[in-house]
Amino acid sequence: MSLRLRLALFGAAVVALTLVLFGGLLYALLSRGVTNDQDTALRARAGQAISALGVSPDLTPRAPLAPADLRASNEIFVEVFDRNWSLVYSTGVLNGVAPSMPQALRDATSPAAFATDNGLRLYALRFSSGTVVAGQSTRAPQSSLSGVLAFLVISGVPTLIAALAASWLVAGRALRPLKEVASAADGIGRARDFGRRLAERQSRDEVALLSTSFNRMLEQLQDSFDSQRRFVADASHELRTPLTTIQGNAGLLARGPVLSDDIRRAAAIDIAAETARMTRLVDRMLTLAKADSGLKLELAAMDLAPVIGEVCRQAGTVHPERHMQCATVEATIAGDEDAIRQLIWILLDNAFRHATSRVEIRLATEGEWARMTISDDGPGIEPEDRERVFERFFRSDKARHEPGAGLGLSIARWIVDQHHGRILAGERAGGGAAMYVDIPSLPRS
Predict the structure, then answer these.
(1) Cβ-Cβ contacts under 8 Å for 326 (sequence gap 6 or more)
(2) What per-residue confidence (pLDDT) applies to 400?
(3) pLDDT, position 327
(4) Which partner for 105 in 67, 124, 226, 275 could form a disulfide, CB atoms 3.0-4.6 Å apart?
(5) What is the Rg, in whole angstroms, of the alpha carbon atoms belonging to the chain?
(6) What whole-number distance in Å separates Cα of residue 211 and Cα of residue 178?
């Protein structure tokens, strides 16, 4: 069942419920009013009959002049009884005889009483010499109520049809913008045209909010799609070089002419180096893929200074040709120790790659932040590249012929973001490049 039909049926159901409640209330009020009117008329007729009898009424039984047949007539009839409830006079007959009075009226102690019996509404009023009873068929109020009920039913049917039609039209008009949005979204999905946008709506209703949200989602999807496409293209380009080198050297060793041991050793060294380079590239691509999939690091309280000191010691052993200086203070952060180690190694590798002779790493506390500064005495980073160095596969013109694929700083930024911190590229005092990493510090216990 379509949403439009459901809305139309819901609107018609609301109108139907309103009609039923209104009709029921109206019928109850009219029923009570008609009954009260009938009782009022019976009281008045009984009073007129007593007035007509006079002070000394003649209670000699006599036949009525033209009694009404109560089976077909709704007229008010009058009966006069003496003190012993013997019939004196009647203006109506039922089945050929005067209507009999129910025992409830005969036994009533009050001077006036109502009763319903045998399809008749009766009112008994005592006077000094007997009792006058005024009565009328119960068909009289029922006939009036039947007319009202018929009117309610007859008028309710076209009202429901009109309500259903109006709800159908209103629902169609209200849902038309949604159909346009759905059609446009379907067209974008089929054509994979993520640069296309839904038309901006002037109104501020829910459909306009949906269009705005959908356009925002398309922008994010387009950015992700373009980023993924660039990532695949750059990864293919970066992998092509080591694969070509490995393939060429492997072919030389397998099918080439007789080679000297030095040439064979050089080919094997090239294969090993390019294999290690490709392994690092694939590992970093896997790390970024996990980051894109929404991987969240588990953070726990940790001391940052010992981790930095251990990594500095290991890095000094790996790069003995560089002069390395490490200075730290006590600082506690909420972090993932393995990820922090990876972050420090990435930044140190980047510094060693560009340094001339000196690399420094310092840890200090500044307010609510723990700041790591990793600097080198290399050529530095151009001001226009200081934000772009964190993009995937980005390498400045100065670094085009240096090893690396340009993924390390992208991973570093992701790790810092996971720790709710910030990373900035800047200039070292005295020349060179510096990386500043700020991570929220925890209060000392």
Answers:
(1) 308, 309, 312, 360, 361, 362
(2) 40
(3) 92
(4) 124
(5) 51
(6) 9
**Cα–Cα dist 116/138, whole Å:** 8
**Interatomic CA distance for residues 58 and 165, integer angstroms:** 70
Per-residue pLDDT, averaged over 73-91, amounts to 87
Give the mean pLDDT of the chain: 82
Note whether 95 and 17 are within 8 A (CB): no
Q: CB-hemisphere CA count at 13 Å for 111?
A: 7
For strand 433-440 and strand 369-376, is the pairing parallel, antiparallel, or unpaired?
Answer: antiparallel
Q: Is the pLDDT of residue 38 over 80?
A: yes
Tokens of 343: 């972050």
Number of other CB atoms surrounding residue 247 within 10 Å: 12
Query: H/E/C letters for each residue in 289-345?
Result: HHHHCCCCCCCEEEEHHHHHHHHHHHHHHHCCCCEEEEECCCCEEEECHHHHHHHHH
* Residue 401: predicted pLDDT: 41
Buried b (16+ CB within 10 A) or exposed e, 169-179: eebeeebebee
Dihedral sign, Cα of residue 75, residue 39, residue 89, residue 120 = positive
CA quadruple 59, 64, 70, 73: dihedral sign? negative
The closest of 444, 439, 436, 319 to 386, measured between CA atoms, is 436
Angle between the 3-53 and 139-191 helix axes, to the nearest 10 degrees? 170
Contacts of 317 (CB under 8 A, 6+ apart): none
- What one-character-per-residue DSSP string does 368-437 give? TEEEEEEEESSS---GGGTTGGGSTT---GGGTTSS--S-HHHHHHHHHHHTT-EEEEEE-TTSSEEEEE
Residues 190-201 have pLDDT tens digits of: 777 767 777 776
Q: Could you give the percent of the chain with pLDDT greater than 90? A: 16
> How far apart (Å, rounded) are the C-alpha atoms in residues 266 and 274?
12
What CA–CA distance (Å, rounded) separates 275 from 242? 7
Residue 404: closest CA among 270, 215, 241: 241
pTM: 0.49
**More confident call, 282 vs 120:** 120
Where do we find the tokens 């810092």?
416
Q: At what angle do helices 408-418 and 337-354 cross, to 10 degrees?
A: 150
Residue 216 banded pLDDT, cuts 50, 70, 90: confident
Judged by DSSP in three states, 202 sits in: coil
Spatial separation of the C-alpha atoms in residues 377 and 323, rounded to whole Å: 11
